[in-house]
Each structure stands twice: as C-alpha cells, then as structure tokens.
Design goal:
Blueprint lengths: L1 H31 L4 E7 L2 H17 L1 E10 L3 E10 L1 E12 L4 E11 L15 H23 L5 E11 L4 E12 L2 H14 L1 E8 L1 H10 L16 E5 L4 E6 L2 H9 L2 E8 L4 E6 L5 E13 L6 E10 L3 E8 L8 E8 L9
Length: 352
C-alpha cells in the first residue's frame, strides 16, 4: 500500500517537472524568436561606445519617440532642445568587434524585446516668432507714448474769458479778475483720444431712443436688456456723435489713469508787456473735464437698459473765475492777456 502511494507521488512529481521544463523551453524559444540586430558605435572610450551601441540597438529594434522643443532666449534667439525616449529591453548581446581606445569603436549583436509601457508626453505650444513679439512690444510702447504726448498737447484748447473786474490789490498793484465761461477741447483731440480707447477699451454704442422706436418696442413686446449702466469702477468714458445720433462709450482699466488726468486741469494766465512777461497759474476750484452729463433723449444699447446720463469729456463746473495781479497802477496799452490750459496729473504718463 505504501509502495503504491510512493509510486503515485513520483508520477505526479515527474509530471510537474515536465510541465515546468516545457514552459522554460517555450520561453527560451520565444526569446530566441527575437531577431538580433547588429550596430556600431564610436566614443571616447570603449565602455561609452558599448553603452551607446546598446542604446542604438534598442532604438533600431523598438523605435524612438522624439520630442523637440524650441525655447526663446533673450527675446531674439532660439535654442533647440531634443529629448529622445526609447522603450525596450536588451535580453542578450555579444561584442563582435572592438577597435581602438580613444576613440574606440564597438560593434555588438543584440536581442531586444520591445517595451510595452506607454509614455505620454505633454504637448508643447507652438513657438511664437520673435519678430511678432517685438512688433507687439513696439506697438504697446508707441501707444503709451502717443497717450502721454496727446494729454500734453492742449495748446488748441479754447478758453473763453469775460466779465472782467479790476481792483487795487496793494498800493501800486492792480488786481484783475476774469470769469472763465467756456473750456472746450478741439474735436480732433477728442477723435484721437476716442480712437485710442476704441483699441484699448471695451466699446458700447448707444443709439437715440426716439418715441417712434419706443412705441415700436411697446407694440411688438420687444424685450429690453436688464443690465444697468456701468458702475464707477468700470471707468466709463463716452463721446457724443450727433450726426449718427449715437453715443460711444468705452470701459477699461487704462481709463482710470485717463480720468485722473481729466480731473486735474490747470489754467494759466500769461500777461505780456513790452518790458516783461508773467504767468499766473490758477487754481481750478473743482473744475473737471470728466463729468456726467444729462442728454436730451434716452439712448439704448443692446443688453442695456435705456439711459440719458453719460460721463463725457466736458468742463464742469462752469463758470469760474481766474485772475492775476500786476505791479503797476494800470496795464500798458500794448499788454496782451492769454489764457492757456494743461493737465496737471501727468506723472503717470512719462515720456521716454
């Protein structure tokens, strides 16, 4: 009985060994089924040449994924970086030939099993040409310079003076006070400023809301927009276009600096005589060229509720007085009085 059990166990053990040997033989046959590749490499040492040869063998058998990247350097030059990723396992290799020492050339024969691990490389964005970057930079600089110069170009502003009062300030001094009744920038100046804002700001066009249009909406049940006019922190600047019966408004962060400049007007009175010229800088007493102005009609824009109040470039409050004192009992007959206008808060707009 015992002998029969021993024989049965021996048969089972023999069967297990046969199965294992068969698997090993199949694996060996699978490995041997891989076609060998022969490659050569030359480097400064035989060890490095052999290492490079192995890499070339894997490249040849498995293929290489090449990932290129172009990098912007110093705003004008490109440097290129090339990364290679190879997946594969060298199961066996033989050195067929080794020549020299420095440099050393090595030829090997290798059996390579391709790797199956997937590699995901993040796609790089398309490079931007340096010329395009520089062009945009120049455009920004030119625009800043235009605005800085434009806000200083106020010689053509029309200042209207009237209702003069004369009194004696001190013995031998005459005091002259005049009422400033109007201050208007030229239309070309306004047009140029609007052109600048149309590029750097978000535009909204309001059309005159006539009674006929309002009645038409009422009869057709046209739904009006629910947005309210932009808030103060949207820095809205508007321009009237009387011919088109439109008002063009622009919002944007750059408007904040422009509004600050518009709220800093300075009036200068220049008195010229044959002997001397003196200039008196006048306080503006709250004068601003940026004010909310009510218009005669309601205006509407797509997405906005009707409105009849817009922040425009106009002198407010008006009128106000400006004056000067002159050393003498009276002004010479040849004296000339000229009023000029400029903005005071322009340090935020430097000129290079």
């Amino acid at each position: 009985m015992w002998e029969r059990e021993a024989v049965a166990r021996l048969k089972i053990l023999s069967l297990i060994v046969s199965i294992l040997l068969g698997c090993s033989s199949q694996a060996s046959n699978h490995n041997l089924a891989i076609e060998p590749v022969t490659v050569e490499s030359t480097a400064s040492s035989c060890g490095l040449a052999e290492k490079n040869a192995k890499i070339k063998a894997v490249d040849y058998a498995s293929g290489t994924f090449v990932h290129g990247q172009r990098t912007l350097v110093a705003d004008q030059d490109y440097s290129e970086q090339m990364n290679e990723y190879t997946s594969g396992v060298i199961q066996k290799y033989n050195v067929l030939e080794r020549k020299g020492r420095n440099p050393c050339s090595v030829k090997i024969q290798a059996w390579v099993a391709p790797g199956t691990k997937a590699m995901q490389i993040q796609q790089q964005p398309e490079p931007i040409a340096v010329d395009e970057i520089n062009m945009r930079a120049r455009q920004i600089q030119n625009n800043h310079q235009f605005l800085a110069q434009h806000l200083r170009d106020t010689n053509a502003f029309a200042v209207t003076l009237g209702q003069t009062e004369v009194s004696e300030a001190n013995p031998g001094w005459v005091s002259v006070s005049m009422l400033m009744t109007d201050l208007q920038p030229p239309q070309r100046w306004l047009d140029d400023l609007e052109a600048y804002l149309s590029i750097h700001g978000a535009p909204t066009i309001y059309s005159q809301d006539s009674r006929a249009k309002a009645l038409s909406r009422l009869l057709t049940f046209e739904r009006q927009g629910t947005k309210q006019p932009p808030a103060a922190w949207d820095f809205e600047i508007c321009f009237e276009h009387h011919k088109q019966e439109e008002i063009h408004c622009y919002t944007g962060e750059i408007n904040r600096k422009i509004i600050r400049a518009l709220q800093s007007p300075i009036i200068e009175l220049e008195v010229r005589t044959s002997r001397k010229s003196q200039t008196e800088t006048q306080g503006t007493f709250g004068l601003s060229l940026y004010t909310h102005k009510p218009v005669g009609f309601r205006y509407t824009a797509q997405g906005y509720a009707p409105r009849n109040d817009f922040p425009v470039i106009s002198a407010y409050p008006m009128p106000q007085r400006a004056g000067f004192t002159y050393q003498g009992r009276q002004l010479p007959e040849s004296a000339e009085i000229k009023a000029s206008f400029r903005f005071g808060g322009l340090s935020q707009f430097p000129i290079n």
